[in-house]
């Protein structure tokens, strides 16, 4: 939905960074016209630089796409947001009426005549902000150039406290990583399951690589990653398979994206801000090839070499008080971004 707040005052450098984000996400949304997440980010970027006309145009595209996808409640919110700015927009009024009719037929929205009126003596409910946000959301970091999204959904991170969950507790005999949280809490990250077995099964099931090659590469990667020394980066299964000459890495990544619809980011073309990379602990980023590369509004975009690393994702979501947008990237590009920020042993 469109924001009614005035755009913040931006420095020339901040303005340039957001314009770069807009340029990239225009390309993304044109190439992927049903990528609602990227359209939402593009809309927000236009608003931040005060380009309301363009923001409204993106909002209309986003609302129409929600309708195409059958997400009528989301479409209704977007149409209502447009009408707040353009109350006489006849096309949007008609579109909103159509969406409301669809919601009424599905039972998700009561028709106006059937809506119950609140009691005069009823006490209005007050929505309390979540803990730590009573004074409003913390200001976001101005984004460096943003990345490409190929229809992957945002995973919302839990705000507030950092805690150890059953999924990240160290199992008996398992190899774990201990990370410090923002308030001194500790997170135990189970290193025994890095998602490589799940990725291997995916590659075999979709016949992207032969089982013999995958099994051999997986065994070697597991041995290399078993006891990583400090500042030594993990070995990627994708990288290991491509090194064996079974398939070019670019072709393998393209096949994974095509079969899974994971987001992809050509991270090698971005000048990643070191302060963004350092949003995660060095040991987590290097040990699991995960790197934050961009922030816009309340969304941090993170590249990873293995999108099946569910425990790595869970750890990130516990550490960051942001929405998280995940992207698949080449292992070399991730290592380059990490190497520009940290000292990585070969």
UniProtKB/TrEMBL annotation:
InterPro entries from the UniProt entry: T2SS_E_N_sf, T2SS_GspE_N, TPR-like_helical_dom_sf, TPR_rpt
Domain of life the protein comes from: Bacteria
Residue spans of the TPR repeats: 56-89
Stretch list, region Disordered: 116-136
Residue stretches of biased makeup (Low complexity): 116-125
Assigned keywords, A-Z: TPR repeat
SUPFAM superfamilies tied to this protein: EspE N-terminal domain-like (SSF160246), TPR-like (SSF48452)
Residue intervals of the Type II secretion system protein GspE N-terminal domain: 264-344
Protein name as it appears in the record: General secretory system II protein E domain protein
Annotated source species: Chthoniobacter flavus Ellin428
Origin organism lineage: Bacteria, Pseudomonadati, Verrucomicrobiota, Spartobacteria, Chthoniobacterales
């Amino acid at each position: 939905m469109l924001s009614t707040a005035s755009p913040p005052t931006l420095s020339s450098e901040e303005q340039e960074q957001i314009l770069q984000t807009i340029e990239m996400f225009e390309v993304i949304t044109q190439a992927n016209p049903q990528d609602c997440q990227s359209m939402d980010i593009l809309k927000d970027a236009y608003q931040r630089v005060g380009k309301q006309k363009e923001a409204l145009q993106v909002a209309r595209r986003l609302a129409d796409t929600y309708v195409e996808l059958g997400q009528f409640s989301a479409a209704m919110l977007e149409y209502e947001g447009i009408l707040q700015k353009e109350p006489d927009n006849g096309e949007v009024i008609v579109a909103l009426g159509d969406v409301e009719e669809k919601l009424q037929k599905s039972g998700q929205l009561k028709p106006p005549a059937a809506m119950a009126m609140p009691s005069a003596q009823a006490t209005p409910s007050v929505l309390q902000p979540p803990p730590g946000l009573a004074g409003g959301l913390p200001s976001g970091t101005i984004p460096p150039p943003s990345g490409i999204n190929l229809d992957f959904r945002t995973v919302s991170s839990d705000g507030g406290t950092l805690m150890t969950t059953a999924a990240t507790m160290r199992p008996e005999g398992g190899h774990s990583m201990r990370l410090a949280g923002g308030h001194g809490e500790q997170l135990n990250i189970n290193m025994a399951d890095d998602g490589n077995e799940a990725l291997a099964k995916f590659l075999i099931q979709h016949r992207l690589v032969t089982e013999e090659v995958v099994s051999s590469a997986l065994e070697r990667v597991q041995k290399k990653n078993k006891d990583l020394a400090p500042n030594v980066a993990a070995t990627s299964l994708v990288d290991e398979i491509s090194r064996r000459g079974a398939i070019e890495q670019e072709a393998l990544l393209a096949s994974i994206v095509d079969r899974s619809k994971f987001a992809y980011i050509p991270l090698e073309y971005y000048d990643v801000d070191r302060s963004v990379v350092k949003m995660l602990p060095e040991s987590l980023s290097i040990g699991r090839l995960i790197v934050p590369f961009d922030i816009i509004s309340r969304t941090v975009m993170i590249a990873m070499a293995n999108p099946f690393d569910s425990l790595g994702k869970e750890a990130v979501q516990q550490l960051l008080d942001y929405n998280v947008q995940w992207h698949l990237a080449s292992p070399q590009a991730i290592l380059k971004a990490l190497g520009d920020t940290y000292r990585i042993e070969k």
